[in-house]
Amino acid sequence: VEGLRPVKKENSELGFELRDGIFKAFCKKALQTTATPDNFDELYSQFTDGIAENGLSLATPTKKREFDVEINSTKSCVAIPRTETATRMIITKEMLKEYLVNDKIMDWKPYIVPLGNYFKEHYKLQIHKKQEVKLPYIFIIDEINRAEISKVFGELFFSIDPGYRGEDGKVKTQYANLAEDGDVFKDGFYVPENVYIIGTMNDIDRSVESFDFAMRRRFAWVEITAESQKKMLHDVIPTWATDAEKRMTAINSVIGNIEGLNSSYHIGPAYFLKLADYSGDFQKLWDNHIGVVLKEYLRGRPDAKVEFDKLGKAYNLA
Q: How far apart are CA 278 and CA 293, in angstroms?
């Protein structure tokens, strides 16, 4: 969602800065507006020509350290701190535009902020914004049960619930006091109503225990069976698809009759896609992949060898 990240500050000092996580940045996209600067290109030319002719000196916003601005051959701004090292930091036209139009800082925050503010003060930038059509934004978390998802979301635990979506479900995060002006979530984070979360998981993985029931209640559940996905065999490995489908159906039939196992333990078609790596050698696929998984299913059972032999015969269509 969000967190503090180490960044290089002025004079190459190491500090920490609040950064959006992937999910929070995604939610911002779902809420974004379309901003169109009508006269940016024209004003940028005047801006760079003025600096090239007269020079420009500014100061960083926090520590008030002075730096000079030059224009290079590509018409980008170059910030040069008045220090012994004088590291030259390039601020491109697009970087400045992102800050002025979308309040987004791509890099070199201590320098792009005063440069952008100078631009705002001296040039009349005309920006028109319009709300985008609220299309569905779909966030997919593969292997969602590999992390303790309730801990990942923390205080936002309720925010993913459909009943708490939108601005009415705002939650103050632990770093809310560090959010900058202009941040759409400065007064509290929420999951937009047009954001949908899809999680995938293998529900027999040992780590499934970390996906607690409180979080389970916030999702609708759909089982994806091995049988429903067998079309991928014909799409990906058409040469061996018919044989692979017969073997898959045969071993899954045996698995369904083994006490303690059920359809959740079925072998899916994804295993058979590896046939392409073995030029259609079904025995290598069994030895290196499928047989190994089935042995793990049967580990510790008194009848493990008998059941494993049944599975082997089914796989070989014997």
A: 18
